[in-house]
Amino acid sequence: MADERGPVDGSHPSVHVDGEVVATKRVGGYRHLTLTAPGVPERFRAGNFVAVSVAGHVARRALWVHRVRASSAFGPTLDVVVEARGSGTTWLAAQPVGARIAITGPLGRPFALPKVAVSCLLVGEGYAAAPLFPLAERLRERGCAVSLVVSAPDEAHLLSALEARRSARSVTVLTADGSVGQRGTVADHVAGLVERSDADVVYAAGPHAVLRSVAAAAERAGAWSQVAVETPTPCGTGLCHGCPLPVVGEDGVERVVRACAEGPVVRGDRIRWDALPDALGQVL
Amino acid sequence: MSAQLPGPVMVAAGCGGTGRELEPYAGPDGLAGLDLVTRSITLDARAGGPGPRVVEVPGGLVNAVGLPNPGLEHFLATELPWLVRAGARVFVSIAGSTMGEYADLARRLSRAPGVAGLEVNVGAPDEVGAALFEVREPYHSASVIAAVRREFPTDRPVLAKLRPDVSRIVEGARSCHEAGASAVVVGNAVPAAFPDGRAGGLSGPAIAPIALRCVAEVHRALPAVPTIGCGGVHDLRSAGAYLDAGASAVQVGTALLHDPTTVARLRAALALRALQEDA
């Protein structure tokens, strides 16, 4: 697959700006925030993330971008999905309309897009499935057949399954407790899903275990895989080297790269999964 | 000939990435004219330590990143030329597991075009964990500085980056200065532990009062020794506290992780303050 994502050297420079919350909405177990962040939506590509500052905290919070609008009553905006899990995300989820938030972005290397119209399977779990939605739109614009799988422990943590039908040819819903859609986890169903979709490229976003099972299934089916790795990124900008991601390079040499700068999207077959801790760490 | 000292604002070691990551946030001139200390460079490449490498605590971060760097050879071939082309004044932070490694690094960097000076990392919060030359006594750091100074031209500065330990800092600064350090950087991350007990270093606003006390003690005892304040600098006020305490410059580290534009804003604010003082 052609890798036209651009280098890591700032040729598509990110910006650090004062953003504003222009809408906030509770959807199931998540809070969806719509933000203005001058310059960020314009530069965004699916798979990029943003880092936001949280009052009283030194480390940044990295957030996936769920949607970008080129124009609205507030100008260009971006939507992020927040699950309140710690003091930082709880603070973010509580920000009202009008709140100012320092935002850096877009950050990281986005999903690589196929040059020709191919069949694509997108698999996401929980709030971390967010970057698959703008990806699905880009793929559809390119004429790709998009099958989307959204998964969650339960219905409240299922992200945007209804909206997904706009840009995907087929949508499969999985919940671990069977509260909606098919019962089971991604690991339970992924082999059959990859086979049925006849995908040339498989994209995944979610916890490490989900990414790993998707990458393995793609490998077995002879498809390319691209996974969006979520790991705590203390700065998000590549400055601190605090988000180690163990990989194997194109040259077969084992390396540790930065999830924020060389990722968050990497080829699934490049990750040394056994060296990657499953826990998401302490930055919440 | 006296070495031209950097300042008044520098990028602290380990907080500017390779320089490229900082460039988009460095202001209209990019890195041009910016005093930048690189992450610590070792003779051989290091992959860095296991995760989590950085954990947030109230007022700061606990880190044990493990000095990931591509090794001197690769640094000289790729990262240094880029930084020089970008116009940065490059101070290379060096770290070694023996005195001989420090001397080797200094000798080879003395011949590399575009190196404005060296910063010798002799106060890491956990040298043993990081497999670095262990500095327990002031003469340990002084002997490293002497070994570096012998290999590096006297018209370019050698900075000694010391641990902000108030009971040892004056003695450490005195012996490093006598060994040839052009200035002392006070200080490094404060020895600390992660919540799980692993050794690391505490950085950020929480350590500013500690480093400030150290700068003040050094300046009082050794007014002729230039000091560079480092620890919790994030705005005009926190930088001004160090400068008022006698520091000739400040370094910005952890604040860049929170807001990558910090150095650009602080340079502009200090330039404005200087103009106003002149007027």
Automatic annotation (TrEMBL), chain A:
**Record-annotated FAD-binding FR-type domain positions:** 9-113
- State the UniProt keywords alphabetically: 2Fe-2S, Electron transport, FAD, Flavoprotein, Iron, Iron-sulfur, Metal-binding, Transport
Q: Which SUPFAM superfamilies match?
A: Ferredoxin reductase-like, C-terminal NADP-linked domain, Riboflavin synthase domain-like
From the UniProt record, list the coiled-coil ranges.
none
Instruction: Please tell me whether the keyword GTP-binding is annotated for this protein.
Output: no
Note the Pfam families from the entry. Answer: DHODB_Fe-S_bind
Q: Which domain of life is it from?
A: Bacteria
Cofactor requirements of the protein: [2Fe-2S] cluster
**Record's keyword annotation contains Flavoprotein:** yes
Similarity field? Belongs to the PyrK family.
Protein name in UniProt = FAD-binding FR-type domain-containing protein
From TrEMBL, chain B:
Q: Which cofactor does it need?
A: FMN
Pathway(s) annotated for this protein in UniProt: Pyrimidine metabolism; UMP biosynthesis via de novo pathway
- Give a yes or no for keyword Metal-binding in this entry: no
What Pfam families does the entry give? DHO_dh
Domain Dihydroorotate dehydrogenase catalytic: from-to ranges: 3-268
Q: Which InterPro entries match?
A: Aldolase_TIM, DHO_dehydrogenase, Dihydroorotate_DH_1_2, Dihydroorotate_DH_cat
Q: Name one GO molecular function term.
A: monooxygenase activity
| Keywords, sorted A to Z | Flavoprotein, FMN, Monooxygenase, Oxidoreductase, Pyrimidine biosynthesis
Protein's name in the database = Nitronate monooxygenase
Species of origin reads Nocardioides pini
